Amino acid sequence: MKRILTHLKSQTRCSKRHTSSYVQGQPDGPTMKTAFPGPKSLAQKAALQNMQAAGGVSFFADYNKSLGNYVADVDGNVLLDFLMQISSLPLGYNHPRISEAMRDPKNISRLTTRPALGFIPPADWMDQLNSTLMSVAPAGVDGVQLMMCGSCGNEYAFKAAFIYHQAKKRGGALPTAEENESCLWNKKPGSPDLAILSFENAFHGRTTGSLSTSHAKPVHKLDFPTLDWPHAPFPQLKYPLEKHVKENRNEEQRCLNEVERLIDERAAIGQSVAGIVVEPIMAEGGDHAATPEFYKQLQAICKKRDIVFIVDEVQTGVAITGKMWGHEHWGLESPPDITVFAKKMITAGFFYKKHLIPEQGHRIFNTWMGDPHKLVILEAVLEVTKEEKLIENMATQGVRLKEGLQKLQEKYSDQVSKVRGVGSFLAFDGSSPEARDSIIRRMGDKGVLALGCGSQSLRLRPANIIEQCHADIFINTLDEVLKET
Amino acid sequence: MKRILTHLKSQTRCSKRHTSSYVQGQPDGPTMKTAFPGPKSLAQKAALQNMQAAGGVSFFADYNKSLGNYVADVDGNVLLDFLMQISSLPLGYNHPRISEAMRDPKNISRLTTRPALGFIPPADWMDQLNSTLMSVAPAGVDGVQLMMCGSCGNEYAFKAAFIYHQAKKRGGALPTAEENESCLWNKKPGSPDLAILSFENAFHGRTTGSLSTSHAKPVHKLDFPTLDWPHAPFPQLKYPLEKHVKENRNEEQRCLNEVERLIDERAAIGQSVAGIVVEPIMAEGGDHAATPEFYKQLQAICKKRDIVFIVDEVQTGVAITGKMWGHEHWGLESPPDITVFAKKMITAGFFYKKHLIPEQGHRIFNTWMGDPHKLVILEAVLEVTKEEKLIENMATQGVRLKEGLQKLQEKYSDQVSKVRGVGSFLAFDGSSPEARDSIIRRMGDKGVLALGCGSQSLRLRPANIIEQCHADIFINTLDEVLKET
């Protein structure tokens, strides 16, 4: 172990002669001129509170000076960014291929004029969908629906489930006059008692429907009326996984049994579960995942009961787990009925199967239904992802990052536990919420950004263009911080 | 009357020598090569249904060939567009000033890299907000919050109202442990029984919270679970307004009384109304408006009861009524507590007053909180709006359009009724839903696009760059269609 850490230690900056860089001209390491966040950021944050909710602001960035894996701030600091705008920038900052796409005269109309895409689509709309979104769709899905954000992606995925459920119930009959009238007033039978079942610690967004399936933190939900929908326990696995196989299997079965019990319990009081939504790794809720067997069994429950199986890949999608979609690690025989995306996918929306596409118009519908500007960016992102083999890169870097974290877990077993994750989608627990916060703060002071999740976890959410030296800077900086404690 | 119509009739195209055009190079009138929608559009629509919900598609456009007030379609037709992507394009298609902003090298980073604006704002964030959104804010508001769409704008406006309501109730105390825990499971007291009161025929969006305040059409709501929130009747005014002053005043008072009765009725069963939301003109619900006195009284009820007064200007905002905001026509002494915007404002969000800005972070929060690309567009839109005096233009063109509609109402009193609206935000009723649909279809065949609303209304939603000849083409085409019936 010592040998490896010494080796890592020697690599605290990227070599300037490094030739395999995915983005040329990046800094070779962080440069810090102030404590972090710096005085200018703090002053601007205080001022901003007078005109908008600024309590969630971390710092103010100089995006013109940011490049690749590095973000510049208003205090002259340059930081290695392992949180990437809450995991939303697949190619980091100011990637030259995206800039090039923005400058390409053939794209100018798509940047200038945003049409109502569900109402008056552009001439080549199907080609655009096929060459971008459908080219990376989970195998076996039929279509894709675009939305403006992940939360809306989930809201409309739920709608597709509700429409399917009620159409099945009607058996081909038209809705009754009573249904059409009562729905207008938020009343049964038109606005029926249907539910989406979700899991403890899940996070699916902040609009009322998706918020009703989120159970991660009070700050997301306090004071907001929500729908009375059921939540099942999510398996709390023991680590290391290989030492607790049987116990963990039992824990997963307990949760699956609860799912079935809850569906029956709700049915008994007149509420039908039309869909189940789950993240491949619960990110906001603390980077918890179950084993592939759990998700397979969950899908089997959905199939058995004809419930729509919705997988929320807003944070797990687009290469970071070492596969395009996190659920590819499960080995499902058929894809989820609906796969929701956003963040690193640039546009939000969901993939779905044919039986869920409503025949009647204006039901899965709103004014914008996506954004051509975002598809121009996505084209560049997917081209670069393929050319540079970034999915494989995130698998490779993930191995190095996870090994580094595991070594630190051995070295600082009182400070680091539950190293976990798939590909480069990694996390560990600090010894307490305060200890975790302190690690994040001191890493910031040394020029490396990471993000908390759950009560005391720290998550790594790098861009898909990290290289070995960036992984090493992250691990070595964390080592330095832990050493000081 | 005859004289005026004859005069209008002579103006069926814009003069090619016309020099005051807001957008140079526009066609001088529609060109139709097929029935509308044409065969290529219909074939593409059928194909698209295999991969997404396409029932709401009207036609497929060639956006590269569209300019100003004219949209080109895939069948070689060019139409004068008086619906403008559901009233979302303030400067029409491919406006040169927006294209120029897209090409400006100083904007390239804002087009390339989308940050999490509520988490890591750009260095000049406050300057950007002040020079764009706040420069056109209703007088007396303090701040602005950005969102991705109008529906989310309303959802988060509702949240601001709920946070304010509960903070007031706590009187400075922290939330209890029971509140923090129960909210996670969608239960009281943390997820309290609060409501937003809305009106019959309102439309505020399609995510679950905003959908619970929408009561326009079953197609928006059928099969979707919603929150049990109250709706009040909205004044059904008699036209012409000047002949029914007293009756209409009584009708408005009846509705205001109902608002107060509903608030008390809900309070009696434990539900508190924290906010009231209303559109200056109910667009989707049929272009209904009340008199300024109604809205003043509604604001007075809110003030008396300390309920948050939310005005949804998603469709009425940005010049089309002849003022920047529709509610400016009411002559309020102080602005609404919250004014929600989207569509022609390019970005979505809301203006609000200081007492509604939450001090605690991460409550009015999500990943994106707006989009820099949209602010680049908005800068150009607001500059052009000011330079070209487009607010005044929409007042001026509105006079001509409304006069034209009124003449047609006199001429075809069996086919056209209830001509109404403010500025260029105009509508009339057809004699039946089918007759209205037929008018829209036949206008399409003649190369002029309009949009239905409510059960049998036709609404005009032109871009803010229409000129006299565009108004005349619209009126004359409508005249031709009505004449054929």
Task: Explain the overall architecture.
In chain A, the strands form three sheets. A seven-stranded mixed β-sheet of chain A has the order 4-10-9-8-7-5-6, sandwiched between helices. Chain A is an alpha/beta fold. In chain A, strand 14 (451-453) and strand 15 form a beta hairpin. Among the domains of chain A are: 115-370, Type I PLP-dependent aspartate aminotransferase-like (Major domain) (Aspartate Aminotransferase, domain 2), CATH 3.40.640; 388-415 and 427-468, no CATH class. The radius of gyration of chain A is 23 Å and the shape is globular. In chain A, 38% of the residues lie in helices and 14% in strands. Chain A contains 16 helices and 15 strands.
Instruction: Tell me, rounded to a whole number, the average pLDDT of chain A.
Output: 96
Q: What is the CATH level 1 assignment of the domain at 115-370 in chain A?
A: Alpha Beta
Structural class of chain A: alpha/beta
Distance between the termini of chain A: 20 Å
What kind of assembly state do the chains in view correspond to? homodimer
Radius of gyration of chain A: 23 Å
- Unreliable residue stretches of chain A: 1-10
Approximate strand percentage of chain A: 5-15%
User: Into which percent range does the helicity of residues of chain A fall?
Assistant: 25-40%
Main-sheet strand order of chain A equals 4-10-9-8-7-5-6
Shape of chain A: globular
CATH T-level topology of the domain at 115-370 in chain A = Aspartate Aminotransferase, domain 2
Number of strands of chain A: 15
Corresponding CATH architecture of the domain at 115-370 in chain A: 3-Layer(aba) Sandwich
CATH superfamily of the domain at 115-370 in chain A: Type I PLP-dependent aspartate aminotransferase-like (Major domain)
- Please tally the helical runs of chain A, counting DSSP H or I stretches of 4 or more residues: 16
Protein chain pair with the most extensive contact, residues per chain: A-B, 123 and 123 residues
Query: Quick one: biggest sheet of chain A?
Result: 7 strands, mixed
